[in-house]
């Protein structure tokens, strides 16, 4: 994987984590996510 792609993946991961972190627990629950799963969800979003 080249450096540019790695950087873009890292940036997308951090953006996803930040957006989910800003949500309330209720909003996360509506999406079927618990707060402790945010990083896992962000990682799996890269493979989509």
TrEMBL record:
<protein>
    <submittedName>
        <fullName>DUF1127 domain-containing protein</fullName>
    </submittedName>
</protein>
<feature type="domain" description="YjiS-like">
    <location>
        <begin position="3"/>
        <end position="39"/>
    </location>
</feature>
<dbReference type="InterPro" id="IPR009506">
    <property type="entry name" value="YjiS-like"/>
</dbReference>
<dbReference type="Pfam" id="PF06568">
    <property type="entry name" value="YjiS-like"/>
</dbReference>
